[in-house]
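Internal tracking record. Fields below are filled automatically when a chain is submitted to the structure queue. Please do not edit lines marked as system-generated. If the sequence contains nonstandard residues, flag them in the REMARKS field before resubmitting.
Queue: standard
Priority: normal
Entity type: single polypeptide chain
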Amino acid sequence: MTSLRISRRTLSAVVMVLAVAATTLAAQQLSGPDHYALLGQARTAMDQRRYPEAAGLYRRLADNNPRDGELWMAYASAARAAGRLADALQADEKVIELGAGFRPNASIKPMNLDLADRPQLAYRMARGYATLGRKDRALDWLTKAVAWRYTPRTSMQTDSAFRAYQDDDRFRELAGLPPKGIRSRDQRWRYDIDFLASECKRLHASFTREAYSPQFDAAATDLKARVGQLTDNQIIVGLQRLVVLLRDGHSIVAPADSGKLLPVDFYWFSDGLFVVNGIGDAKRWTGSRVLKFGSQNVEALLAQLPAYVSRDNPMGVRWIGPVMLTRLDFLQAMGGTSDPSRATLTLRGPTGAVTDVALEGGPNRPRPKLVPPYGDTVRAPLYLKRVTTNYWFTPLPEVNAVYFQFNQVINQPGGELLAQFAPKLLEAVKDPSVKNLIIDARHNNGGNSYLYPPLLRIFAYFQESSPGRQLFYVVGRNTFSAAQNFSTNVERLTNAIFVGEPTGSSPRFTGEGAIWFELPYSRVRASISNWYHQFTFWSDSRPWISPAVPVELSSTDYFAGRDPALEAVFDLIRHP
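SYSTEM-GENERATED OUTPUT FOLLOWS
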């Protein structure tokens, strides 16, 4: 038998390795309750900005449950805050590997951690590696971010982390920096058209891939061929027509700085297009029906609008189309004026008199929601009294109801958060005399879909808390984006009776967008939808949610201060 001789030094080293391994194993073998208790300690350390301690605790938690990407993300944030950038970058790779980073309601992470999706995480990693002087790694992660639909890629151009890369050809391509040597006006516009088309192909998240269609490519090629015959404003109109082919309401090209707007606001009622508000002296035309723009009958212009309006469904044309008719560059493209700075409208006033009115274009202004008739908030119907307040409610004891108006899925600026508002609504509907809850989302064109779950829980409680309780949900053409997601959830999860017009979006839609980037030469701003939203079943191909109780708004009802949708709800309550 061969004898095994081990030196004292070797034996000591083996013992030390085994001790470290045993200690590590013991540290990783936390029971479920112990793991959760340690999580509480990590949260507290992070909240109190004890970052090195938080990093150590989160690392232990992540080692104990390495399949939990949210823990790796918490560790990355704590390590970064503690100045341990290399450790944070290694943790970020685990976050991407596990698909974590977009879980705002998760109880396993503190709410002061930044949310980030995969392209944002890749971009953050690129910045980190650039900070560490590892250029190749930084460019590799920028490449991944771009491939994963990071937007706006043009933000790289001014990011201080990449200041040293400005002359690097690979970086210039990733950042959308234009090639050197292009000087003529036509060359620059053609480059911008190509850049926009390539961003549509890279970013647009629709499963039907409209940006790769022959129609889209042909439109881009045609616009490039006509650059020499078009003014700058006409090219910008052409860019908008190009993104309309993507068939979604979030992909848009912004108005040119030189574009002018008519000093009136229009609304497309069931009985025609009317002036509902005016700027300055143009207020006197409020209440007038529009008959013509220049020599064009209004019906002819309305028929052209689908080519210019980004939309999810035809209700988008009725909502956004009247806004487009105030833009003189688009009005000129449709033949409604020959002058991009003014237009002549033929109006029929409330008395029946027909007048030709010359209106000068003015500066750009925010897109308006429907305002109270003649600006009178005192005598305005309930649905027009507080349009600029994101959420509010009032009791309606005459119909045993609470009326809740939800005008934006955004926390009220300078006011209480939606999460703080929700308990107040809950207390109001707990009153046993409240048999009906009326939810009005007609003015709600979206916001943040992660904010509204507390409201859904209130609706579910209300309908289940007592027999005979009923939800009524009022929608319209302006119910869009996050408000569409909200509406889809209300439809699926409650017994709500929908009243009004079809929604302005679809139960499944390509959205987000609203992340602006500039075209390299012209600096025209554009936004391309880079997310796909589906809060319904895959087989749901409806263009909208169509109300069970259809109600349209006429100019007669509007200017008389009546609300036929709410009247229909009251009738259903009184005569079930």
